[in-house]
Amino acid sequence: MKTLTLKGLQRCRGSVDLPGSKSIANRALLMAALAHEPTEIKHLLRSDDTERMLEALAALGVKVCESTTTQVTVVGCGGQWPLQPASLYLGNAGTAMRPLTAVLAATLAAPVLLTGDARMQERPIADLVDALDEGGADISYQNALGYPPLLISQRLQGGTIHVSGSASSQYISALLMALPLAPQASRLVLTGDVVSWPYIELTLTMLRDFGIKIIQVSQQEFHIEGQQQYQSPGEYWVEGDASAASYWLAAGVLGGGPLRIEGVGGKSIQGDIGFIAYLQQMGGKVTVHDEYIDVQGGQLHGIDADFNAIPDAAMTFATLALFAKGRTAIRNVANWRIKETDRLHAMATELRKSGAVVEEGEDYLIIDPPEQLKAAQIATYDDHRMAMCFSLLGFSDVGVTIEDPDCCAKTYPNYFSELQRLT
Ligand SMILES: O=C(O)C1=C[C@@H](OP(=O)(O)O)[C@@H](O)[C@H](O)C1
Ligand SMILES: C=C(OP(=O)(O)O)C(=O)O
């Protein structure tokens, strides 16, 4: 297995251009495909997750013309897919699997099977499937009940639909993207405590950009007219990835800066920009500009906070905690368990290798850093964020060895070459 050893990094300075946001890129590709006119998408992320979406759109007959790898024109077909593939393979991309399940249920011309890699087949999707079934679709599990692969065989109609948002906000985002295409109007009622709320705001913002009207009646209820048409904004710029920015923000603090992070800032539509407020609370010196961020170092101390709104960037605090004075508690992240791996367990296991004392709760981690960090070889569980978070241990004297660093290709293929350039 490939490994990468990082040790005694002294600084992280200069300027880094973030890749496009995964969450925005996959939404923009799908919404552009659903529009009736072409959309030029600029600063597109190219990574495993966006390749899975691009492959799915190609299989559905959507033309995507590349000016450069990060600038493409999607020739939308208004939901009338030119081709009817029997099946689509979506890897482990939640931002492809969940929205495509709902959108294809709403635009179905012939039955289609949606599948993914081994881990995707362990990531629950019943809350979304139940909601789509309530709206008139017919979706059946081809393997384990409640998990992909799924066969979609009857169209979504609309009406009153309940969905639980307690495991993933992606189910709600998926329904918000699909219900405007249904023949009837819908009333979407959210049940349970909704997790990762800022991603729903992101979906609503982007739907507005693509001409879709959603009426939010309350925190729990949306009214959505059916038979709406997605409209191309002409051009669409994908912001830099705010979750990816968290690694540079952390590296900038540990390496003393000055580091400029380009592509995302105070005007961001991504919830993970909220990472900065927690980092500042922890002692990080960060200045936020509209479209870039400057990091100047800082002395870190532990914090105790609820990270439900930023589950992806929250992982970065787990490894930053190893450099902080005192205890850090990362709370309300139960759905870490159903992501690329069981992140609560994986994180606790790997943090302990550095000498930290870690309590793993059902939905939290409490981390007490060691007096002296130990050199560790870190397993990454095919989880891009495990690899990127633990790279921060390269700033210790003892260093770290990262197993399978290439798994960062899910969202950030050149992360480690950028780290080498800046340190
Ligand atoms: O909608 C999105 O783009 C995402 C929502 C979040 O998932 P959950 O809602 O499952 O927490 C996040 O973890 C994921 O990386 C991207
Ligand atoms: C949870 C993640 O991905 P997905 O979109 O597959 O859910 C992630 O990128 O951290």
UniProtKB/TrEMBL annotation:
GO cellular component, one term: cytoplasm
Enzyme class: transferase
Transmembrane segments annotated in the record for this chain: none
GO molecular function: 3-phosphoshikimate 1-carboxyvinyltransferase activity
Catalytic activity: 3-phosphoshikimate + phosphoenolpyruvate = 5-O-(1-carboxyvinyl)-3-phosphoshikimate + phosphate
Cross-referenced CDD domains: EPSP_synthase
Ranges of residues in domain Enolpyruvate transferase: 8-419
Gene3D superfamilies: Enolpyruvate transferase domain
Associated pathway: Metabolic intermediate biosynthesis; chorismate biosynthesis; chorismate from D-erythrose 4-phosphate and phosphoenolpyruvate: step 6/7
Places the protein is found: Cytoplasm
EC annotation from Swiss-Prot or TrEMBL: 2.5.1.19
Binding, 3-phosphoshikimate: K22, S23, R27, S168, S169, Q170, S196, D312, N335, K339
This protein's UniProt keywords: Amino-acid biosynthesis, Aromatic amino acid biosynthesis, Cytoplasm, Transferase
HAMAP family xref list: EPSP_synth (MF_00210)
Biological function: Catalyzes the transfer of the enolpyruvyl moiety of phosphoenolpyruvate (PEP) to the 5-hydroxyl of shikimate-3-phosphate (S3P) to produce enolpyruvyl shikimate-3-phosphate and inorganic phosphate.
Protein family membership: Belongs to the EPSP synthase family.
Assembly and oligomerization: Monomer.
Name of protein: 3-phosphoshikimate 1-carboxyvinyltransferase
Source organism of the structure: Pseudidiomarina piscicola
